[in-house]
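Hey, weird one. I pasted the GlsB/YeaQ/YmgE family stress response membrane protein sequence into the form twice and got a warning about non-standard characters only the second time. First submission, copied straight from the form history:
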Amino acid sequence: MSWLWALIVGGIIGWLAGMIVGRDIPGGIIGNIIAGFIGGWLGSLILGHWGPVIGSFYIIPALIGAIVLVAIVSLIFRSMGRSRG
């Protein structure tokens, strides 16, 4: 049951990061979950373990990491789109 909670929280973190940055992560719900998980990992790695914990995610570092991840991915996809057209 804890993995289900982690999937839900990871998806919400990825969705919030996309809303804050103003860009969608490719892949829809799956992309949001992946962005939330990778962002949580990056945020905890860079910023440490602090703040409230929900679904085994430290919310503040996870959200910051997901925002950075979504911004980087959107820049990469935007530059790929320009080079094609």
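That's the output from the first submission. The warning seems to come from a hidden character in my clipboard, not from the data itself. The longest strand covers residues 53-54.
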